[in-house]
UniProtKB/TrEMBL annotation:
Family indicated by similarity: Belongs to the diaminopimelate epimerase family.
Pfam families xrefs: DAP_epimerase
GO molecular function list: diaminopimelate epimerase activity
Swiss-Prot/TrEMBL keywords: Amino-acid biosynthesis, Cytoplasm, Isomerase, Lysine biosynthesis
Keyword Mitochondrion: no
Function: Catalyzes the stereoinversion of LL-2,6-diaminopimelate (L,L-DAP) to meso-diaminopimelate (meso-DAP), a precursor of L-lysine and an essential component of the bacterial peptidoglycan.
Pathway listed: Amino-acid biosynthesis; L-lysine biosynthesis via DAP pathway; DL-2,6-diaminopimelate from LL-2,6-diaminopimelate: step 1/1
A GO CC term attached to the entry: cytosol
Descriptive protein name: Diaminopimelate epimerase
GO biological process: lysine biosynthetic process via diaminopimelate
Reactions the enzyme catalyzes: (2S,6S)-2,6-diaminopimelate = meso-2,6-diaminopimelate
Gene source species: Methylocystis parvus
This protein's record includes keyword Repeat: no
Quaternary context: Homodimer.
Length: 286
């Protein structure tokens, strides 16, 4: 029997430099196995930061249900830049606004301009159990214990549907992102691991940000991390509730509205469309 994804189209896009694949599985009952996600990531030209698999909606009013894969095959409950890429992909069907469900909740997107999209990421979750953390803590300032060599002593914890640890630093460019990110992602405080951000406050509405993503590593942009950072900075009184987040791949504009929803706006680029082949999955579970 041919592999169900043989000859299936796949889109390569990026959201502010965050490398995204969009795999539209609506109308099929195929659920991508972690091994299959890793096989796609290993194919020439298809390496991704996140793969967004679209499934038929489970509830009336939704446009799709999404499964979000990291490069190691693990799943995430949220991906802000990926959602904006999905919004661009489905805009080709004439849909300018979307409601997208994940296991962590529902997010909404809208088109602002030809290649600029906003995603409403919903409310941040700020209770230590929701991050989750391994022990009770005030999420505004959690002590990193045991200490990680070279890491700041404390961080802010936020869930945007996925776990984030945000460290405020004087010089984000000087942070050894790979070594610290790897160590903190898997720190015993995070039973589900964490996305790790290093943020430098430039002014009350301007933040420089570098991110080590859970399950993927250093990326050029991480939307949910940008949201978690703005929420952390505003809670700490370091910024207003609206700011520009400068990431290596581009700028994201984040607003934590009075109704508690966090909105992110930024650019999306379509790179190319190609087709998967059965050969790619040889050795991976079907
Ligand atoms: N790049 C994403 C976040 C992707 C998920 C993350 N690596 C996780 O495992 O939670 C974004 O734009 O939000």
């Amino acid at each position: 029997m041919p592999h169900p994804l043989d000859n299936h189209p796949i889109l390569r896009m990026n959201g502010a430099g965050n490398e995204i694949l969009v795999l539209d599985l609506r109308g099929t009952d195929h659920v991508l196995a972690p091994e299959e996600a890793r096989a796609i990531a290993a194919a020439p030209g298809l390496r991704f930061d996140q793969l967004m698999a679209l499934h038929d909606p489970r509830e009336a009013g939704d446009d799709a249900f999404m499964r979000i894969y990291n490069i190691d095959g693990s799943l995430s409950g949220a991906c802000g830049n990926g959602a904006r890429c999905v919004a661009y992909a489905l805009a080709r069907e004439g849909r300018e606004r979307l409601s997208l469900a994940t296991d962590a909740g529902r997010i909404e997107t809208r088109r602002e301009a030809e290649t600029v999209f906003t995603v409403d990421m919903g409310r941040p979750r700020l209770d230590w159990r929701d991050i989750p953390l391994a022990r009770e803590a005030d999420t505004r300032a959690v002590a990193l214990e045991p200490a990680a060599p070279g890491a700041p002593a404390q961080f802010s914890a936020v869930s945007m549907g996925n776990p984030h640890a945000v460290f405020f630093v004087d010089d984000a460019q000087a942070v050894p992102l790979a070594s610290l990110g790897r160590a903190i992602e898997c720190h015993p405080l995070f039973p589900e691991r964490a996305n790790v951000s290093f943020a430098q406050i430039l002014s009350r509405d301007d933040i420089l940000l570098r991110v080590w993503e859970r399950g993927t590593g250093a990326t050029k942009a991480c939307g949910s991390a940008a949201c978690a950072t703005l929420v952390s900075a505003a809670r700490a009184g370091l910024t207003e509730r609206r700011a520009r987040l400068r990431l290596p791949g581009g700028d994201l504009f984040i607003e934590w509205r009075a109704d508690d929803h966090v909105l992110m706006t930024g650019p999306v680029e379509f790179e190319f469309e190609t087709r998967l082949t059965a050969k790619l999955f040889e050795g991976a579970a079907a």
